[in-house]
Amino acid sequence: MNIATIGTGSIVDAVLAAIGQLENVTCTAMYSRKKETAQPLASKYGVGTIYTDLDTLFSDPDIDLIYIASPNSLHYEQSNQALQSGKHVVCEKPFTSTPQEAEKLISLAKEKNLLLFEAISNIHLPNMKLVQEQLPKLGPIKMIQCNYSQYSRKYNDLLAGETPNVFNPEFSGGALMDINIYNLHLVMNLFGSPDTVSYTANQHPNGIDTSGVLVLQYPEFIAECVGAKDTTGMNFVLIQGEKGYLQIVGGANGCKEIVLRLGQEPAETFNAQTEANWLFYEWEAFGNIYANKDRNRCYELLDHSLSVMNVLGKARREAGIVFAADQRS
């Protein structure tokens, strides 16, 4: 599978390092508005072609799949263009700005018989499979707490009067979409869609959320998801059942190891991940789906992504967070 990348940020660097470990995935081209911006990454990973025109990129017959890591607000437009050009697509999280955009992309991908993925790494991790295996031991689940808080260097720019993309409603930014989404994907991957959704946020005067608490109500338990870009916290996931608890060390982004404590028994620790770069597992999954033409698995993942987008939409409405993309959907 020959891929091309859109974007030159740190996540693209990490992805290129991950696919360098895979035999069936090769990056052959990159896009950047300025060639000199992409040149360091291209040189680092031996990428032979740099495009500065998207139409030329999409028309390259040697490219099978486009990996999109541009600002959130561009995800829909660029994914749509790539699919219209007959390319498979992996699009960074959040999948799109609105549920309506996600529905349109999924419909187009199925119409054209193409693969489409959201690049959300944690649901593909081996340790997530361990969590699923250990959950029944907890008995009835009653409470879930998640915290993923990471102070953003861009927050300093926001405080200084600038408006970085990640804190800009025009670019579909904010803590919910950028960081709390990891908590949401993890919880919904394990338990499906909640019955009700509420979101209480710390908001900048421009309307964007810099941190917030997302509460998901299920029939038998409550899940609380905290995401912050204006503070640093102790990142963790704690799933509490009547018979014990399960802790995901390091939080929803990475799932470094699993700690299980049942009653008064000694805690057990589990870890099935051997790769330091956890994006490896995500791209291994994408590569296998592509090689096996496993559209059923692709569509299962798309159903999950759409469910997450629907919850994100409800949460934003609850908090009164409005994106420019809302006017276009």
Automatic annotation (TrEMBL):
This is Gfo/Idh/MocA family oxidoreductase.
